Amino acid sequence: YSKDISSPEKSFDSCSRLSPYISWGCISLKEILYKTNSLKTNNSRMLKSRLTWHCHFIQKLESEPEIEFQEFHPYFKNIRKKDNRLLTLWSTGKTGFPFIDACMRSLNFNGWINFRMRAMLMSFASYNLWLPWQDSGSELATKFIDYEPGIHWNQCQMQSGTTSINANRIYNPIKQGKDHDPNGNFIKKWVPELKYLPNSFIHEPWLLEKFNNETYSNCDYVKPIIDIRETTIKAKKKIREITKEEGYWAISKEIYVKHGSRKINSKNKRTISNSKNSKEKSIQYELKLKL
After folding, report:
1. DSSP codes joined into one string, the chain
2. Quick one: pLDDT at residue 3?
């Protein structure tokens, strides 16, 4: 579980795969927790931790239902542009980035993919394609057999940088592919257009052109629809500019007080200080860590 949870291929066997049954009410969290408590392993502790986060995110949506439609932080409203062409290419696994397309095609076929790959797909849509998270989030919602609104929309905003209280993670799909599918086996399975490419080029097939190799130019696979480096730089710059606007941090602190996770004390219990000064210092510390 702990070792292979991030692998798009191995996670099909290593993850609990209970999420669809939880979402559809076939099994309760209480029953899962009861069974898990009988296992004294690191894996069981990790699973219980994720069950806790499951409830944490659902409670966020219950306390503020508009999270499904409106940005946590109002300064991020309408910063992205609709583009149905890019949305369709992303949704159908035709972006020209092998690992992105393999993950999306696998999701389209199975209705499930692991958490890291979900985060990467959302990050790519929000930062590199600069699509509204509401549009890409709605696309993903129709694909997941374990769709849970509380988790889904919180994660969509977290992976799009609109919460202001979470670290902005712009996943590099090339690096993610090399880390979690080093030999390209997962890519070759879901992007058969590239199955005859040598492993050294499977994550960046466009590099073959520099060697005057006709293998890439003759295959049916699409060329990248965006420049990954350029779009990443632009996205970071735009987000950074927004954080410098007057009043941004004051609103962020209010969001943290309402939705931020709390630090854990020595007894492993979550606490919130009653002292206004202590709360202010805690918020500032957490924001520095996360932003």
Report:
1. -TTTTT-TTTHHHHS---HHHHHTTSS-HHHHHHHHHT--SHHHHHHHHHHHHHHHHHHHHHH-GGGGTS-SSGGGTT-S---HHHHHHHHTT-SS-HHHHHHHHHHHHHS---HHHHHHHHHIIIIIS---HHHHHHHHHHH-TT--HHHHHHHHHHTTT-SSSS------HHHHHHHH-TT-HHHHHH-GGGTTS-GGGSS-GGGGGGGT-HHHHHSSPPPPSS-HHHHHHHHHHHHHHHHTSTTHHHHHHHHHHHHPPPPB-TTS-B---S-HHHHHHHHHHHHHHH-
2. 83
Distance between CA atoms of 94 and 101, rounded to whole angstroms? 6
d(CA 64, CA 72): 10
pLDDT digits (tens, 9 = 90+) for 12-28: 998 889 999 999 999 99
Give pTM, 2 decimals.
Answer: 0.87
pLDDT digits (tens, 9 = 90+) for 102-148: 999 999 999 999 999 999 999 999 999 999 999 999 999 999 999 99
Nearest to 201 by CA among 215, 186, 218: 215
User: What tokens appear for 17 in the block?
Assistant: 């795969």
Average pLDDT, the chain: 88
Is residue 95 scored above 80 in pLDDT? yes
pLDDT score, position 114:
95
Quote the CA–CA distance of 209 and 218 in Å, as a whole number: 11
